[in-house]
């Protein structure tokens, strides 16, 4: 490939073109609020992992485990793209505050939920809020922090993710064991309130450039691509229902499952067709996803996110059921995965900044993750610390060095005007992968468990699958317990095999990401085809 070179604007014109930013103190306070929200979103993802077994105990809802993740991911996935579109049309401040409020409302519903269904509804509401927060934080940073200071603030994003990832499982275990799992959600309320108050008080995005609204209400509605979104939402819902029901509640050949799959496929194809038809008026402009590095990163993040969520949901089950540990102990034993994830993310960020290339970390992630997940699939009830500890370290390093790279790609190869949509599409694919494969993992787990329990003819399989995870040990005698744990272990490691398989697919995306330097300025093509000197960009090797 040829190198792309650009003419730098002179200092005078650059100064004249610089937008107006808040002063340093205001900037620090505003970005602190952003970090608080980001902390809560990442904490919400990690804190629930160690609480899930106890939640299933209270609601007698082992069958609903997949929905605890899928409900959140489903709405986050469905609304992610339209939120990216909205940030190009609506001032970021009110939209971001609205999404923060929805996230808080969802957390409150989860905290007070009297039933499993109510809990799932709360997760769905929180997911809608989360959909607008990821893109919103990126937009706010781009309009609050001058370009030369952004690497510092982006590094702090990684640190925030790291802190939430480290303390999430442990804090979830402490709340679950010492107080109640409901505090995993109550904790979001006061912290989120502080962040929202700061946003109301200080956030002023004077330099935000918005696309003009159409003059008529119909024209404004059409700007949001309602046809595309109306087609996308039921497509995702039908797919999730089919994956939840197929092989579990109904056979895969059941007319209901087949109909859901067919409808989902037809609607998804229709959505793609609508995006091609509408071009830059689409929710996902084709020119963005056709860019080679973006397309490769989308494939990578789709499978990387799915593998991560499967392991975060089912590895705590292994510790709490197979090893008989408490939620707190389970959270502590996830640290060998979480800490290397943090270390890998920070190290990859620093080295990418120094070396200028993110490609080595894509590839390293695609190698380490399937190895780590595959090794976890060798665990048994008698496995010792050296095994589950070492395997998690390998997996965590793979997760850490790769998880953030797709967003770095979006910031590198896209112009400033496309950052919101590019980030939204990237997060959509990450959520979509998790939304699809969490039900697949649940299906594999439950089917394997029911099949394995035939070894214990006196045990009612329905009592196991409809009860709580940690109640399993109380369903059999001491003589039958070892056999039950073997059966449970066998079912769980099948989900680890799934994670290993789908994480291995990420190598395809890693290979096709272009070797582009993040240190060299570039001119980004805009929707009109003009070149604009925007942000750090890439030299293609």
UniProtKB/TrEMBL annotation:
It comes from the Eukaryota. Residues 30-518 form the Major facilitator superfamily (MFS) profile domain. GO terms for cellular component: plasma membrane. GO terms for molecular function: transmembrane transporter activity. Gene3D superfamilies: MFS general substrate transporter like domains (1.20.1250.20), Multidrug resistance protein D (1.20.1720.10). The chain crosses the membrane at residues 33-53, 65-83, 95-114, 120-143, 155-175, 187-205, 226-245, 257-277, 298-319, 331-351, 358-377, 389-407, 419-440, 491-513. This is Major facilitator superfamily (MFS) profile domain-containing protein. It comes from Stachybotrys chlorohalonatus (strain IBT 40285). The lineage of its organism: Eukaryota, Fungi, Dikarya, Ascomycota, Pezizomycotina.
């Amino acid at each position: 490939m040829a190198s792309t070179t650009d003419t730098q604007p002179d200092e005078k014109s650059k100064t004249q073109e610089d937008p107006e930013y808040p002063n340093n103190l205001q900037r620090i306070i505003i970005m602190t609020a952003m970090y608080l929200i980001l902390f809560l979103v990442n904490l919400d993802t990690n804190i629930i992992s160690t609480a899930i077994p106890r939640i299933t105990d209270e609601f007698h809802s082992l069958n609903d485990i997949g929905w605890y993740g899928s409900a959140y991911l489903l709405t986050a996935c469905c609304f992610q793209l339209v939120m990216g579109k909205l940030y190009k049309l609506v001032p970021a401040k009110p939209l971001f505050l609205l999404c923060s409020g929805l996230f808080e409302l969802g957390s409150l519903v989860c905290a007070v939920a009297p039933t499993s269904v109510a809990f799932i509804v709360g997760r769905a509401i929180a997911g809608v809020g989360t959909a607008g927060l990821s893109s919103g934080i990126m937009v706010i940073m781009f309009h609050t922090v001058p370009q030369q200071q952004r690497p510092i603030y982006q590094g702090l994003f990684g640190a925030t993710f790291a802190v939430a990832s480290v303390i999430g499982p442990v804090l979830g275990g402490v709340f679950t064991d010492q107080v109640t799992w409901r505090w995993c959600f109550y904790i979001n309320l006061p912290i989120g309130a502080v962040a929202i108050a700061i946003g109301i008080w200080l956030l002023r995005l004077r330099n935000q450039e918005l696309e003009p609204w159409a003059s008529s209400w119909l024209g404004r509605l059409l700007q949001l691509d309602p046809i595309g979104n109306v087609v996308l939402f039921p497509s995702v819902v039908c797919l999730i229902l089919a994956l939840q029901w197929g092989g579990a509640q109904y056979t895969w050949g059941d007319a209901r499952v087949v109909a859901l799959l067919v409808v989902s496929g037809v609607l998804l194809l229709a959505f793609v067709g609508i995006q091609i038809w509408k071009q830059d008026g689409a929710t996902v402009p084709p020119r963005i996803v056709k860019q080679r590095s973006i397309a490769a990163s989308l494939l990578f993040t789709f499978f990387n996110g799915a593998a991560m969520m499967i392991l975060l949901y089912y590895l705590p089950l292994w510790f709490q059921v197979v090893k008989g540990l408490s939620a707190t102990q389970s959270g502590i034993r996830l640290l060998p995965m979480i800490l290397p994830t943090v270390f890998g993310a920070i190290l990859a960020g620093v080295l990418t900044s120094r070396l200028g290339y993110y490609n080595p970390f894509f590839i390293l992630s695609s190698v380490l993750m399937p190895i780590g997940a595959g090794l976890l699939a060798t665990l048994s009830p008698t496995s010792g610390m050296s095994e589950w500890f070492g395997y998690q370290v390998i997996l965590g390093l793979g997760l850490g060095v790769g998880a953030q790279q797709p967003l770095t790609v979006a910031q590198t190869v896209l112009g400033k005007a496309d950052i919101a949509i590019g980030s939204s599409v990237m997060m959509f694919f990450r959520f979509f992968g998790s939304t699809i494969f969490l039900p697949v993992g649940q299906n594999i787990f439950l089917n394997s468990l029911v099949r394995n329990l035939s070894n214990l003819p006196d045990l009612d399989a329905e009592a196991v699958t409809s009860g709580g995870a940690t109640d399993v040990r109380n369903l059999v005698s001491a003589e039958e317990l070892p056999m039950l744990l073997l059966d449970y272990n066998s079912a769980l490691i099948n989900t680890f095999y799934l994670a290993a398989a789908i994480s291995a697919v990420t190598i395809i995306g890693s290979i096709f990401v272009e070797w582009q330097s993040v240190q060299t300025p570039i001119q980004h093509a805009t929707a009109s085809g003009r070149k604009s000197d925007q942000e750090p960009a890439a030299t293609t090797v």
